[in-house]
Amino acid sequence: MNSKKILGCLKAHPIALAFIVICVLLPAIFRAPYLMRVFTEVFFFAAMGCAWNIIGGFGKQTSWASASFLAVGGYTSILMYMRLGGVSPWITIFAGMALSVLLAVIIGVPCFRFRGVFFAIATIACVTIVRQLLIYFRSFTGGTLGLALDIRLKDNFVDMAFLNDEPYYYMTLIWMLIVVLLTVRVERSRLGYYLKAMSEDQDAAESLGIRSHRMKLKAFIISSVILSATGTMYTFKMAYTDPNLIASFDISVRIGITAILGGMGTIWGPVLGSLICIPMLEVSNYYLADFGGGGAGYAMYGLLIVLVVLFRPNGVISLYYSAESRFKAWRAAKEAARKAMKTGGAV
Amino acid sequence: MFQTLINGLLIGGVYALIAVGLSMIHGVMKIVNFAQGDFLTVGMYFSFIFYTLMPKGSLPYWLLIPVAVLMFIFGIIVFRTAIIRVIGKGDSNYILLTLGLSYLIQNMLQLIFGPNFRSLDISNELKYSAITMFEDTMILSSPRLIAFAGALVFVTLVTFFLNRTNMGRAMRATAENTTVAQTLGINVKLVFTIAFSLGTVFAGVAGLLMTPMFLISPQVGTTFSTIAMCAMVLGGLGNLKGAMLGGIILGLVESLSSNYLTMDIAPVVINTVLMLVLIFRPYGIFGQGARKA
Q1: Domains: count for chain A
Q2: Vertex B114: Cα angle to B111 and B120 (nearest 5)
Q3: pLDDT-derived band of residue B163, with 50, 70 and 90 as boundaries?
């Protein structure tokens, strides 16, 4: 996809363009570090949601193994940084990606034999295994205590360590946009069409000669590579990692839900989902932290999921689509009325 | 060795109870309830509330009936407001709905009761009472034994219910083929409701039976959710006896692996067993017949 095409795309979606412009200008307008940190989190989850969307949205394979790939990326870089004398994460990010390809094949080859809920259960089993192994090899991975980096006082690009929040903000923004472009690319590629065909009817797609197992694996690998790179950045942003933060089933669920809440199988759905979830959690954690025994934010989160599944199964973004189509119909009707007026009512 | 096996067997009985509830829900309406573990937590909190009302030092097992009734009502409410809308609408819908419910329940409980661990204030006589056998080489802890026996009784009752009553027969017919059952005049909606609520009752009763040995916290259910799902798959979907044996096997596996390896590695072993069964025996260990996976 060249730059002209991208510009054309953006022209066709003025809201997306406005969103990007606002995001770029946000730190300049509001000098609020907290806001920036929240948005960094939003971009992280948007990127993860987009990655999940490739396999979960286009391929309709609800994978709950996403956290394992985050963990592979995060742990590979942090371990190489700590044990090999500060190898730059910009190099180890690729090592993490390579390892996550390996893990994607190990998980994907058996799991893609199953369909529907069995696939979901199998990926849950996989994510639990990875998490427990990270806890078990505690001499190497730090166990449940996790690993902490001492890069907090550094401020250079090579170590992915910055004192301000702005570099992280722009880093994640750029990464999110790259991931969105990648998903556009996947959607419009042969693989994207195959995935859509398979998600409609796998047997029919197979009878037309689509090798579904291989195609799913391909999508899974693309998704896992993106997740692994995101994991590296997330870990270095946090300067800390532990199995519950990065490898738990809970995180997998939150990634998947981000995408589904926004609208799975759409390009901007995961971004929208992340824009809704993360600020909602932040706001409720801030204002409702002392309300009852805590947990009000996540209770609202759960309620939101239930409501979206019941009333908007195609995600919040479907609201926009239906509004858009209504607007178009309204405009067409107006146009027709004007034409009818011109011809004097003789249509 | 014997002691480990016995411990595994006894805890396996409780896992079996959760798994049977899960399997029943799946058998009848083809839905895997990812919130089953949280229903168990709800049962635990119900027991906790009632127990504070009871005179000090009384047996918690008297709460069986109120907890079961409340769980039944809870199940009806959850089913009628939410679950019924996603039946037959594809896998990802119900997976998400039940996961959302799981978040909602966990955090509502935390909102009400706080994140702290709680336990029933039961008398030490019950807590530490045990039957020793074979000249003290084997100790059967009473709460565990009661939990196991309770689980067995419940599973027997439900088997009786399914095979000997009209409602049970209607339920099996619906499980076999919903459309045909409906044309034969079975009230499918009612059958679904009862099956789901019975599933919740099973989880709640398992929660009650576990309260003397486990601490109560809002997040306690998640582990049991995974184990119950493993047990269900292990036994073959919709196969109640299979789910029961699956639960017992998982109890044994867990107990053996945490005793001879470490606590952390037990979930790895359980999930590896699950993966192996899925790959090599996709109908479950005891299952025969077709499955769509």
Answers
A1: 1
A2: 125
A3: confident
Residues in A 270-299 with any Cβ partner in B closer than 8 A? 291-299
What is the per-residue pLDDT across B165-204, written as a single tens digit (0 to 9) for each?
888 888 888 888 888 888 888 888 888 898 899 889 988 9
> Is A330 part of any domain?
no
**Residue A122 touches partner B, C-beta closer than 8 Å:** yes
Residues A48, A71: Cα–Cα separation, whole Å: 13
The rounded mean pLDDT for chain B is 82
In this complex, which of A292, A293, A305 lies closest to B103 when CB atoms are compared? A305
Q: Is A145 on the interface with B (CB under 8 A)?
A: no
Query: What is the span of the domain harbouring residue A193?
Result: 32-298
Instruction: Check pLDDT > 60 for residue A345.
Output: no
**3-state SS class at A244:** helix
The reply to whether A7 falls in a domain is: no
pTM (2 d.p.): 0.86
Long-range pairs of B133-137 with CB within 8 A, sequence gap ≥ 24: B134/B2, B137/B2, B137/B3
Q: Smallest CA–CA separation between B161 and chain A, in Å?
A: 28
Indicate if the pLDDT at residue B74 is higher than 70: yes
Q: How far is B138 from chain A (nearest CA, A)?
A: 30
Query: Which of A132, A297, A305 is opposite residue B265, by nearest beta carbon?
Result: A132
Beta carbons of A273 and A321 less than 8 angstroms apart:
no
Q: What is the pLDDT of residues A168-182, one digit of tens each?
A: 888 899 999 999 999
Q: Which residues between 19 and 58 in chain B have a beta carbon less than 8 angstroms from any beta carbon of chain A?
A: 32
Tell me, what CATH number does A57's domain have?
1.10.3470
